[in-house]
Write a structure and sequence with these properties.
three-stranded parallel sheet; Rossmann fold; mainly alpha; single chain; Helicase, Ruva Protein, domain 3; Zinc Finger, Delta Prime, domain 3; 316 residues; globular; 3 strands; 58% helix
């Protein structure tokens, strides 16, 4: 469980190695909870394989397992798992997994991968570039933190892509990072904020659909947007206090030209009260998504986007 995807993936790789023999890897099947019936998953897990000695089943988005009948079906399976079968539940959330299922899992087999603290993020990025033979400025690191989703899997993917365009004979600057990552980065909640800041309703709705289609957790989207609006409140406070300068903006995590453009645009649409209302909306819709059961999450996400954009139209 938890939002740190990179370290989570390393732990899953260790499980793969542990249950695979030197001659044969375990047969692997991946399911997304909510996309396929739990009864179908369990039926497949109960049936042995004709071709592999061991089988690994990975159930992603495990927080979506909420129906009573699904929990009962899985509980019965977990009480008597076949000897050749191994099962991993994965969730980006921390406390949403069913307690009824959790009691069948040994405490030693539960692991939470927390979001990296700022110090560990800086250490990870500096180590990555140093080991690859590159030098990067503090501004370059700050720009990566602004543009890339906060987990080591995203850091590795984007930084590996970044160095394809750069030479080792000079230090990587913030402008370098923004130039290349802005052209190559995939959709993320932070890109969604850019579109919200610009007041582009249509592109914001399209961005949400892309994120959901890519199995991005709505809870993670709300967490990222909430952090952006909190940063916007700090930005607005600096401007209102007459301290709106690059040094002060850097202290609150706004240093790249792109981030400055985004928060300047957002400040033209929202004031402190409406930015605070946007944070409250994040909390409200996070709760609605978690408690909605089978209600289509894309409808709730569209409602959220409409309301956030409407707040940006309120006269200052």
């Amino acid at each position: 469980m938890g939002p740190e995807i990179g370290e989570k993936q390393l732990a899953i790789d260790e499980v793969r190695k542990k249950i695979s023999s030197s001659q044969e890897a375990a047969e692997e099947t991946v399911y997304y909870a909510g996309d396929i019936a739990i009864s179908h998953m369990v039926s497949n897990m109960m049936n042995g394989s004709l071709f592999a000695e061991k089988r690994l089943f990975i159930i992603k988005c495990a927080e979506a397992i909420k129906k009573k009948e699904d929990i009962e079906t899985l509980s019965a399976f977990l009480a008597s798992v076949p000897e050749d079968c191994y099962l991993i539940f994965i969730s980006d959330e921390i406390y949403a997994f069913s307690k009824s299922l959790e009691k069948y899992i040994s405490p030693s087999n539960k692991k939470i991968f927390w979001e990296l603290l700022d110090g560990r993020k800086l250490q990870w990025l500096n180590t990555f570039f140093r080991e690859k033979g590159y030098k990067i400025s503090a501004e370059g690191i700050d720009t990566i933190l602004e543009l890339v989703e906060n987990n080591t899997s995203a850091f590795k993917q984007e930084c590996s892509r970044l160095i394809l365009f750069l030479d080792k004979d000079r230090e990587i600057t913030g402008s370098d990072v923004e130039k290349w990552l802005s052209h190559t980065k995939e959709e993320s909640a932070f890109i969604l904020f850019t579109k919200i800041a610009a007041g582009d309703l249509q592109r914001s709705l399209e961005s949400v659909r892309v994120l959901l289609a890519a199995k991005e957790s709505p809870v993670a989207i709300f967490a990222a947007l909430s952090s952006c609006f909190k940063k916007l409140m700090s930005y607005l406070a600096l401007k209102e206090a007459g301290r709106g300068n690059d040094e002060e903006y850097r202290k609150i995590g706004i240093s790249s030209p792109g981030a400055k453009r985004d928060y300047s645009a957002a400040a033209g649409r929202y004031n402190s009260l409406t930015a605070e209302s946007c944070i409250a909306l994040c909390t409200e819709y996070d709760h609605l998504i978690r408690s909605s059961g089978s209600y289509p999450e894309h409808i709730l996400m569209d409602q959220y986007i409409y309301k956030v954009h409407s707040l940006g139209e309120v006269k200052r």
